[in-house]
Every structure is written in structure tokens, then in C-alpha cells.
Amino acid sequence: MKVFISHAQQDAKWAALIRRGLREKPYFDVWDSELEIQAGDNWALKTGEALASSDAVIVLLSPEAVSSPFVRKEIDFVLTNRKFRDRVIPVMVKPTKEVPWILHTLPFIDGTHGKEKAIGDVAVALETVRADSDGPAKQTAKR
């Protein structure tokens, strides 16, 4: 399962922790801009391609993230794309008052009280998404 982590640059350490935690599971392929984007690459194009090819998106919420035009565009993209229905996982990494209203309709993970628990909760949420996406295929195969 391809996973994209939307985050502000200031939250890069959080993104790296989550990426490392998820990579312990062989079925999560977490995109890493630092590895995938080389000097001279079109950053916006590469990021857009990675986002579009992802199966699920983790949105790290912080004051910096909600004020970032890039994070806002990524949120808009996934929330208006049917492919990501029930596949967006917001994670509060810093107390944030100005969360986009639409994200209030989604269950989010509170990472402000412990990184390890939050990383575990993200993995569980993604495993649920993964199981749900495999469900109909497995049910059809069993018939």
C-alpha cells in the first residue's frame, strides 16, 4: 500500500518518525521526498505524482501545516478525490486551532501526548484501510 504523508517542512521530523515506523511493515510503501526528489527535479510535479499514486494519505496537523499553501492544496486534492474516501488519516502533531473545517468530520489521531502511541495508531488505521480495500476482492474470491 502506497502512503503519502502531507506535512509542513517544520514537521519533517514527525514525518520521518512515522515513515520509519510504517516501514517496519512490509506492505507499507511510504513516499519520502528527500529520497525521491533530486536536485533539478520539478518538486511540484514529483509531489503531485506521488500523491496521485498513493493509496492513503496521512495529514500531519500543526499551526505551520494549516498555514502552508502546499499542505492545503494536498488536503484539497485528497478530500475531493473519491479514491481517498476513508483513506485520509489526520494526525495532530502540535496543538492547532485553525484546522480546516472538513477535517473536523474525520476521526483524527492525537499525537500531542506521545509519538510512539501516535505512530502505532497510524499503523492500525492504515491496516484497517488496507483490510477494507482487500475485503471485496477476498470475498469475491471465496464465492
What integer is the average pLDDT?
87
Taken together, the total number of domains comes to 1
Envelope shape: globular
Low-confidence stretches: 136-143
Please state the structural category: alpha/beta
Distance between the termini: 25 Å
Percent of residues in helices: 40-55%
Note the beta-strand portion: 5-15%
| Arrangement of strands in the largest sheet | 2-1-3-4-5
Number of helices: 6
Radius of gyration using CA atoms only: 15 Å
Q: What's the helix-strand series?
A: EHEHHEHHEEH
- Name of the CATH superfamily: Toll/interleukin-1 receptor homology (TIR) domain
Level-1 CATH class name: Alpha Beta
Question: What is the third-level CATH name, the topology?
Answer: Rossmann fold
Topology:
Elements: E1 2-6, H1 12-23, E2 29-30, H2 33-36, H3 43-53, E3 56-61, H4 63-66, H5 69-79, E4 88-92, E5 109-110, H6 115-142
Helix pairs in contact: 1-6
Quick overview:
Helix 1 (12-23) links the parallel strand 1 (2-6) and strand 2 (29-30). With 143 residues, the protein is of the alpha/beta class. The two termini are 25 Å apart.
List keywords for this structure.
5-stranded parallel beta sheet, Rossmann fold, 14% strand, 143 residues, alpha/beta, disordered C terminus, 49% helix
Structure description:
With 143 residues, this protein is of the alpha/beta class. It has a single domain, classed as Rossmann fold (3-Layer(aba) Sandwich), CATH 3.40.50.10140. 49% of the residues lie in helices and 14% in strands. It is built from six helices and five strands; from the N terminus they run βαβααβααββα. The chain has helices spanning 12-23, 33-36, 43-53, 63-66, 69-79, 115-142, and strands at residues 2-6, 29-30, 56-61, 88-92, 109-110. Strands 2-1-3-4-5 form a five-stranded parallel beta sheet, sandwiched between helices. α1 (12-23) links the parallel β1 (2-6) and β2 (29-30). The radius of gyration is 15 Å and the shape is globular. The relative contact order is 0.18.
